[in-house]
Design a protein that fits this description.
The complex is a heterodimer of chains A (255) and B (328).
Chain A (H helix, E strand, L loop, with lengths): L2 E10 L2 E11 L4 E5 L6 H8 L7 E6 L2 E2 L5 H5 L2 E4 L11 H6 L14 H13 L15 H13 L5 E5 L7 H16 L3 E5 L4 H6 L2 E6 L2 E7 L6 H8 L3 E5 L5 E5 L2
Parallel strand pairs in A: 3-8, 3-9, 6-7, 7-8
Antiparallel strand pairs in A: 1-2, 1-4, 4-5, 9-10, 11-12
Chain B lengths: L4 H22 L9 H33 L11 H15 L4 E2 L2 E2 H23 L5 H25 L5 H9 L8 H19 L1 H9 L1 H7 L3 H23 L5 H13 L3 H31 L7 H19 L8
Antiparallel strand pairs in B: 1-2
Classes of the chains: A alpha/beta (255), B mainly alpha (328).
Chain lengths: 255, 328
């Protein structure tokens, strides 16, 4: 299972939001996409999922151009947790997680044993057992994020795309989500994560892709983020980095 | 929110039976529906049309509300009913009726009008940047007003003098004769209702948000087109015969969502059953109101009553909804 983007150029409302970006996501990879606001991170994720028309270049899923795959076929391989949820929030948590099985169900079928098992595993992995009968709009931001991730997990895909999963969450929920994501990696899943917090890639490991104004300005292992000159080139602001003897690494703004 | 769906359905079923019994028992202006000739030609078709119309408009309303994620969407408030009326009126007045490849022309024209209007309303709302409740509603109301004006223009140009019959139809009325209208409507509604059942999971997902839906495997564009198609068909099948009966499609989905929750697996059948009970009940009251109050045998169109009840409910929604995006 792999997704390859070759020299991807994408326009939105006539304006280029991605220019000539290439990326290969292979089995078991963990790739974090970083960059300033408006750099094209979310557009890249949408294009890799076939949700945005590509003006030049191609997205290949296991060698097949993504535009030739049905949405259902894509949803069985990649699950996606978008950043903004503009929908109706009156659904119960159970209904949201069950919606993850859409790609496996015929329209008039009810849930099978296998569907129920997948839902149960997803609920357990995200520890939302006690929330199942609550409407989504009564949950906190962190709880909601766990619910959306559980729904994506119920899709039983080997790849997960998460758009700013820890954004605007309190520290305890951030820690819990990072543990959940590490669990996915330990289970052999592939992750593509968009993040603003530069410490998230350092805690997940793997590789980073940095975008600026729609172009890839850096791609490499996360350890290379500890280079402050490189960070300044990406974000146009100064950073300090720590590399403690116990192996703990962190990045902070320098004012 | 949310009783066990099983009990809600039981309750709705009992209400539905009660309405049927009451309709047959009370009859109209003192004549019981037990008179066999009247029962065959007038009462039974009218009762069945009322049930079909209530069920269709309520289901269409639920579908439009999911499609636009907008609590105030319904066939009536989106101008879809008015569009269907215009289509039906043009054919009815200039051609008179007839068949086209075996399909009733008036119903086809109503469908074309409905589809045209919902497309126009969507295009107007979308060009102003998406799904604001206000813009969609204003677009729907304006298109509805334009269609009503065009209907009057058509009547004026055709120099028709039997305006009261047309006025009655434009107000929304279940006065039909014989089973032909029922059969015609049933054919369209069966097709659209089947599609609605087929799409129940897609409707849930579209309500959760389009990006979420696409990520789960919903082919969003085709699905939206199918929902437009079936909700317009449900509306047109009814409007062609009964005119634009207002607010059933707004009122019923709201109450049912409160009772069985937002999942369309339960919401759609609950709307169908509740609509099938609600509209014949309204018709029973409207039809006999003049008889009860003044001893006259004139009948009030059912649309007058649904507009009064629904209009009040609409104001209540305007005053209490939580926010512009998802206050469904």
């Amino acid at each position: 299972m792999s997704i390859t983007a070759e020299n991807l150029t994408v326009h939105r409302l006539g304006r280029p939001v991605l220019r000539d970006v290439s990326l290969r996501i292979g089995e078991g990879d963990c790739i974090c996409v970083i960059g300033p606001n408006g750099a094209g991170k979310s557009s890249l994720m949408a294009a890799l999922l076939g949700l945005l028309p590509v003006s030049d270049g191609a997205v290949l899923m296991d060698g097949t151009p993504i535009c030739r795959l049905s949405r259902r076929a894509i949803a069985r391989r990649v699950a996606y947790v978008p950043q903004i949820h503009e929908g109706y929030m009156g659904f119960r948590v159970r209904e949201i997680v069950e919606s993850g099985r859409y790609a496996y169900l015929d329209p008039l079928d009810s849930l099978s044993e296998e569907d129920r098992r997948a839902i149960g595993e997803a609920v357990e992995a995200c520890r939302i057992e006690t929330l199942l009968d609550r409407p989504l709009d009564t949950l906190s931001g962190g709880e909601r994020q766990k619910v959306w991730i559980a729904a994506a997990l119920a899709q039983q895909t080997s790849m997960l795309f998460l758009d700013e999963p820890t954004n605007a969450l309190d520290p305890a929920h951030q820690a819990e989500l990072i543990r959940i994501m590490r669990g996915f990696l330990a289970a052999g899943k592939t992750l593509l994560v968009i993040c603003h917090d530069l410490n998230l890639p350092l805690m997940l490991g793997g590789r980073v892709l940095a975008l600026r104004e729609g172009q890839a300005v850096f791609a490499g292992p996360v350890e290379d983020l500890l280079d402050t000159d490189r960070l300044r080139d990406i974000f146009h602001t100064d950073f300090v980095t720590h590399h403690a003897t116990d192996g703990h690494k962190s990045v902070q703004l320098k004012l | 929110m949310g009783m066990r769906p099983r009990y809600v359905f039981l309750l709705l079923f009992v209400c539905w039976l009660a309405v049927i019994l009451a309709t047959v028992g009370v009859g109209m202006f003192g004549i019981s529906f037990f008179d066999p000739a009247i029962f065959q030609q007038l009462s039974l078709p009218r009762l069945m049309m009322g049930m079909l119309a209530g069920a269709s408009l309520a289901v269409a309303g639920a579908m439009f509300q999911a499609l636009f994620r907008n609590p105030l969407a319904s066939p009536y408030t989106l101008g879809v009913s008015s569009g269907a009326s215009l289509g039906a009126a043009v054919i009815f007045i200039f051609v008179g009726g007839g068949l086209w490849y075996g399909m009733p022309l008036v119903s086809l024209a109503a469908f074309a009008g409905a589809l045209g209007c919902v497309t126009l309303v969507y295009a107007i709302a979308h060009s102003r940047g998406g799904h604001s409740v206000g813009t969609l509603l204003l677009a729907g109301i304006v298109i509805g007003m334009i269609c009503s004006a065009l209907i009057v223009l058509v009547l004026f140009l055709a120099e028709r003098h039997d305006l009261s019959a047309v006025l009655q139809w434009m107000m929304g009325s279940l006065e039909i004769v014989g089973f032909n209208p029922v059969n015609e409507a049933l054919a369209m509604i069966a097709l659209a209702g089947g599609l609605a059942a087929y799409l129940h999971r897609d409707l849930d997902l579209l309500m959760m948000g389009e990006t979420v839906a696409a990520g789960r495997g919903v082919p969003v564009r085709q699905t939206r087109a199918l929902i437009y198609f079936s909700a317009s068909l449900l509306t047109a099948g009814i409007v062609a015969h009964c005119g634009p009966i207002g607010f059933v499609g707004l009122l019923i989905p709201h109450i049912m969502r409160f009772l069985v929750g937002p999942s369309h697996r339960y919401l759609l059948p609950a709307c169908a059953l509740a609509g099938a009970a609600f509209l014949p009940l309204c018709d029973l009251l409207a039809r006999n109101a003049m008889w009860w109050l003044r001893g006259e045998s004139r009948q009030m169109p059912v649309g007058v009553l649904t507009n009064l009840v629904g209009g009040g409910f609409f104001i209540y929604l305007l005053l209490t909804r939580r926010d512009d995006r998802s206050g469904l």
